[in-house]
Design a protein that fits this description.
With 250 residues, the protein is an alpha+beta fold. It has two domains: 83 residues; 155 residues, Immunoglobulin-like (Sandwich), CATH 2.60.40.4070. The chain is built from two helices and 13 strands; from the N terminus they run ααβββββββββββββ. Strands 12-1-8-3-6-13 form a six-stranded mixed sheet, with no helix packed on it. A four-stranded antiparallel sheet has the order 2-7-4-5, with no helix packed on it. A three-stranded antiparallel sheet has the order 9-10-11, with no helix packed on it.
Length: 250
């Protein structure tokens, strides 16, 4: 049995939609003509349709036909401009091979502990005030290896609310005796009324490889991230994303 490719299915769906649209348009025009002819056939011979009114109806039909044609032309032009516009070039059109050797920031929930167990810096972003916030770190077997509140503290060491914006989570794997490897990291937060507050974790790193099969992706060491999750690309050694006005959480 032959395999039907996804692109073929999408083309068929698009063609069917276009056919139905054309049928609806042609059907409307045909109905208008049918009513007009029926009106002529059934008019009173002794009191025929006023010629001025008849001409007006024909003019209305012509105007409708022209408007339909203009609408179709505008839609076609809009589609063409949209396909050619740089704005329409979404992240799936990024060539991941062009990112090798660049520093990137991506949405991600994995951290890597290297052989030197270098302290980890991780940008995070919130959109609401959080009065409770915590982090959990799991190893490759799903075992919880670290858990802590990440609320910032004031000069007296008392927890304070995490403000909306960009913040920085720092973590010392050596202090927690974590061996080298890749770990899953999970953030959770709540607001003053108990509602969940989203914390978006971000990963910074050097792109060391590109994956071209399936969904385009990049490698940062042993970790793989979709190009859809890329937030920023920059030359190595340049400044990371800013945390101006943000807070550092440990």
């Amino acid at each position: 049995m032959p395999v039907i490719e996804g692109t073929g299915i999408e083309s068929a769906i698009a063609a069917e939609a276009a056919r139905k649209t054309a049928q609806e348009k042609d059907g409307g025009q045909a109905n208008f003509l049918k009513l007009l002819v029926t009106q002529l056939e059934n008019q009173d011979p002794l009191n025929p349709q006023d010629s001025a009114a008849f001409a007006s109806q024909l003019a209305q039909f012509t105007s409708v036909e022209q408007l339909v044609a203009i609408r179709a032309g505008i839609d076609g032009l809009g589609t063409q401009l949209g396909n050619n516009s740089p704005v329409a070039n979404d992240s799936t059109r990024i060539d991941p091979t062009q990112l090798v050797g660049r520093d990137v920031v991506v949405f991600g929930s994995q951290i890597e502990v290297d052989e030197a167990r270098t302290p980890i810096r991780m940008p995070i972003r919130t959109v609401e005030d959080a009065t409770e916030a915590s982090v959990k770190i799991y190893d490759a077997d799903g075992v919880l290896r670290f858990e802590k509140s990440i609320l910032p503290v004031d000069a007296n060491g008392r927890p304070i609310a995490m403000r909306p914006g960009d913040h920085e989570f720092t973590f010392d794997p050596a202090a927690q005796d974590l061996p080298p490897g890749v770990y899953a990291i999970e953030f959770a937060a709540k607001g003053a009324t108990g509602q969940d507050v989203t914390i978006l974790p971000m990963v910074e790193g050097l792109v060391t490889g590109a994956i071209l099969t399936g969904n385009p992706a990049i490698r940062i060491g042993p970790r793989v991230f979709s190009v859809d999750d890329i937030l920023e690309v920059r030359l190595p050694g340049t400044s990371p994303i800013g945390t101006a006005g943000g807070q550092t959480v440990l």
